[in-house]
Amino acid sequence: MSEALLQRVEACYQLAEAFFQRPFLRPAVSLRLRGLKAGVAHLTENKLRFNAQLYRENQEHFLRQTVAHEVAHLVAHQMFGPRIAPHGEEWQLIMRGVYGLVPERCHSYEVQRRVQTRYIYRCACTEGGEFPFSSQRHRLVGQGRRYFCRRCKVTLSFTGEQRRE
């Protein structure tokens, strides 16, 4: 776990405590998030997950903006309850008033997509075209799951063709 990231989480909580004049329960923090998201706040579990790759590649902005963004979700949940909008007034108040940051909903980090293998399936009709399946869906077919063409209702079958995207 990155010491700088943990320090930033703690600093965000201290700012919130000074602003709201009350203590907040500290969350569990992990760098075990993958994919396109930079961070996720699990409100009911009081847990923060961050994307280690995006953190490494965008460290300064990530520490300033992304960590505060996710902590603000947990603070808003503890302050205002579970019925608030995820990026609503309460969350925006915390981003602006507590952290002095623009409340950005989404990050703009460069995300390198993995090369993925697509397995090509077809049906009996000519209008159905081809159906590129992910590795997971292809594996499910191997375990007996069936997928059907919406036009002709025939089970899709693997052509043997694979494509890298």
UniProtKB/TrEMBL annotation:
**Domain called SprT-like: residue spans:** 7-159
Protein name, as recorded: Protein SprT
InterPro entries, per database record: SprT-like_domain
**Which chain regions cross the lipid bilayer?**
none
Q: Look up and give the organism this protein is from.
A: Pseudomonas fluvialis
